[in-house]
């Protein structure tokens, strides 16, 4: 009897051990690799999965076609550093501390890559970082200091300062593929791959120079917006194509002759390049050529020769046409689009290169691929370039996610999601517990369910922008966006509300805040907005200000 009993125990023990081993293996197999691709200032109007008017982006569209496209992904604060901090921490700017670009991110804060690293992931951060501090939580990093440069870019690579040859979008991709090649194949990986492009000052790769020379882009119908039915904040900014774009820096209206002469002349006035540059000089036209000369001189002689061929033609056309007023604005808009979109073309090609690499090495389908931007951007809507405002083109950011084991090919979601949700989503897929103090929601239920919006999903998103006074002078504001409406409160040196009915007025041309027909809607939205401020622990700055007086 005794013998039988011990035998039984041994069998049972062996069986349990085998089950555990099998379970562990199954669990391990499920840990997906993650590639988080983020570009800088790439707006949905310039991504053909969203909008076919301006450019075709077949490689980015592939992610959408083979995965999910989110139609309503909004940022919580439409500006670079803050958006990055929100994504990494899963917390709003007022909680993670990085309310504007002038601040330095406190890198001792918990960020999702650290949590993945703890859970056994190999982690890498490549490309634009723009948080001031040194990245923590990565096995490997190679970041562009500050805003980065388009040609012969500098990098800080695991603490070492180096300069690479080539065009930034290509170099960042080479580094990404290099990391994948040399990685520890026994571990799942998280690779954050972040491009500088298509950020200002929109310098295309040599191979893309002149690619849109024969194209005339359709103008947004509100290119010449006179702001008459909107608010004071929308008028009082410095981001108009017509008057705020720099001739040399933005429009490349400096001839090779002028640039050569400048290179021989005594040094031009210095443009102080602190973390964000010195914004007082932002609209100082006297430093324009000197600033451009600095980035122009990063090109090799061959690159300069190819560049000059294209842009000398532009300078000649500008002089010949001698346009004024609205005609000049229209012409500037065309030049802006040519350069911005040519930068997007290099992004698309390089994402294609990365996808091909993953396919060739058999890693494509077990990798979650996220494509997004740090915010949207104005491509001439309301006459603007840049972002910052809570208006649609700036608030909305592209979001494409490919992961065939869970996400249906070609699916589209209307869900109101935010960049606040990225960290919880990725942790959720990796089987890592989401810290309770993260403020976003995991989008996994949406992704796993063909984009359907669960009944208990949020009905509104909350926004808060702080960087003022600063570049482009967009006043501080906060607001709420529901599926149909948007209510914004501009505060600080102004106290104005704007209300838009996005169903009737998708271009946000008519502020309805003072329209009696919308009084009730405005009241309801205000209540909802208050609740969101409580939920996300944001003190109403206008109330705070009132108390201080
Ligand atoms: C730079 C740009 C601004 C831009 C900010 C923030 N000026 O300062 O136009 O708004 O970056 O952009 S530039 O003349 O130096 O190009 S962000 O993407 O980093 O938030
Ligand atoms: Ca940006």
From TrEMBL:
Hydrolase as a keyword of this entry, yes or no, is yes
Could you list this entry's UniProt keywords, alphabetically sorted.
Answer: Hydrolase
Q: Does the keyword Signal apply?
A: no
Superkingdom as given in the UniProt entry: Bacteria
**InterPro entries tied to this protein:** Alkaline_phosphatase_core_sf, SGSH_C, Sulfatase_CS
GO MF annotations, alphabetized:
hydrolase activity
| Stretches assigned to the N-sulphoglucosamine sulphohydrolase C-terminal domain | 380-534
Q: Which PANTHER family match?
A: N-ACETYLGLUCOSAMINE-6-SULFATASE FAMILY MEMBER, N-SULPHOGLUCOSAMINE SULPHOHYDROLASE
Member of which family?
Belongs to the sulfatase family.
Protein's name in the database: Sulfatase
Which species does the entry assign this protein to?
A: Sinomicrobium weinanense
């Amino acid at each position: 009897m005794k013998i039988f009993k011990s035998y039984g125990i041994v069998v049972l023990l062996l069986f349990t051990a085998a089950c555990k081993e099998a379970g562990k293996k199954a669990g391990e197999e499920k840990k997906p690799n993650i590639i988080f691709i983020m570009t800088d200032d790439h707006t949905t109007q310039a991504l053909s999965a969203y909008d076919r008017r301006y450019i075709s982006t077949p490689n980015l569209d592939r992610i959408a076609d083979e995965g999910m496209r989110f139609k309503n992904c909004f940022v919580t604060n439409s500006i670079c550093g803050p958006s990055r901090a929100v994504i990494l921490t899963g917390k709003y700017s007022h909680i993670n501390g990085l309310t504007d670009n002038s601040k330095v991110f406190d890198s001792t804060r918990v960020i999702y890559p650290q949590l993945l690293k703890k859970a056994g992931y190999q982690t890498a951060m490549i490309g634009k970082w723009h948080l001031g501090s040194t990245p923590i939580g990565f096995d490997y990093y190679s970041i562009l200091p500050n805003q980065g440069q388009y040609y012969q870019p500098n990098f800080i690579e695991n603490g070492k300062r180096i300069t690479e040859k080539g065009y930034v979008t290509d170099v960042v991709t080479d580094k990404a593929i290099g990391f994948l090649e040399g990685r520890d194949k026994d571990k799942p990986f998280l690779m954050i791959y972040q491009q500088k492009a298509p950020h200002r000052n929109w310098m295309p790769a040599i191979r893309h120079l002149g690619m849109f020379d024969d194209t005339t882009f359709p103008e947004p119908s509100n290119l010449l917006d006179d702001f008459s039915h909107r608010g004071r904040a929308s008028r009082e900014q410095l981001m108009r194509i017509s008057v705020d774009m720099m001739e040399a820096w933005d429009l490349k209206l400096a001839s090779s002759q002028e640039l050569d002469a400048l290179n021989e002349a005594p040094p031009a006035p210095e443009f102080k390049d602190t973390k964000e540059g010195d914004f007082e000089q932002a609209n100082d036209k006297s430093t324009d050529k000197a600033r451009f000369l600095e980035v122009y001189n990063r090109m090799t002689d061959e690159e300069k020769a190819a560049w000059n061929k294209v842009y000398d033609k532009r300078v000649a056309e500008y002089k010949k046409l001698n346009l004024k007023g609205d005609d000049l604005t229209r012409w500037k808009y065309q030049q802006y689009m040519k350069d911005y979109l040519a930068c997007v073309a290099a992004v698309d090609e390089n994402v294609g290169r990365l996808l091909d690499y993953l396919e060739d090495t058999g890693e494509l389908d077990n990798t979650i691929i996220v494509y997004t931007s740090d915010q949207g951007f104005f491509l001439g809507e309301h006459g603007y370039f840049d972002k910052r405002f809570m208006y649609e083109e700036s608030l909305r950011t592209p979001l494409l996610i490919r992961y065939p084991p869970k996400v249906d090919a070609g699916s589209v979601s209307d869900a109101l999601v935010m960049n606040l949700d990225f960290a919880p989503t990725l942790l959720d897929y990796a089987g890592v517990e989401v810290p309770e103090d993260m403020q976003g929601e995991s989008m996994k239920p949406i992704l796993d369910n063909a984009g359907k919006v669960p009944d208990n999903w949020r009905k509104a998103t909350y926004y808060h922008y702080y960087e003022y006074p600063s570049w482009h002078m967009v006043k501080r504001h906060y607001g709420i966006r529901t599926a149909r409406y948007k209510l914004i409160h501009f505060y600080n040196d102004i106290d104005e509300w704007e209300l838009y009915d996005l169903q009737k007025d998708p271009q946000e041309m008519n502020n309805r805040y003072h329209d009696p027909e919308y009084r009730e809607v405005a009241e309801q939205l205000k209540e909802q907005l208050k609740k969101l401020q409580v939920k996300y622990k944001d003190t109403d700055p206008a109330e705070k200000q009132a108390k201080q007086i």
